[in-house]
Structure prediction request, 225 residues.
Amino acid sequence: MKTVKILTLRPTQFSVGMLEVDEKIKEVSEYSKKKLKKFINEKPVPVVRGPDDRLYVVDRHHFLCVCYHLGINKVPVDIVADHRKAKMNFVQFWRWMGKTRNSYLFCQFGQGPRKEYYLPRDIRGLADDPYRSLAWFVRKSGGFENSEKNFAEFTWANFFRGKKLLDKEGMAGFEKALLKAVELAQSPAARKLPGYGKLNLTEKAEVKAEAKRRVKRARKPIVEI
Prediction:
């Protein structure tokens, strides 16, 4: 499997959820060297090789942010499509990327699509979308199921953004926003979103308890290694 430097990989989205990144850093920081190596090798980053010979990240932007923060310089990649020999110009390539759902050109404010040339050159330029973190916490708490649909959590992020859950108290009110988001994830308004599924009363209580636990953990500072 090909291994490449993280900073040579080109993002295909504008933002990530930084609270999600922080949470994963805390988890991975506790790994032994052996477990860390296994963690990296078991998660090859899917990429598309463009007609310009650059590698464009299809998924796992959060994973790359975690690795970079932990001082990992190289990661294995899985080339899912290679366009080096294709007679494709810039416009055609990005049209293909959009059509095949291999890029997400909406910014951290949920606005777009933006032009491809505004994408950051590497993962250091990714912006923070708090609503993307909110969606991840809801899913990890059990509010909705994981979906194989590309950019499913961005769809949920925009749903929660439309409810303006963070507008009143900002990030200081993240826990309240999360508990409200859990309720909204079970509402009829969310039934068409990827991974939607109804829970019974006991399950809803368990999800809220897990959401609170995760927020408390997220508030703890990251231990530098």
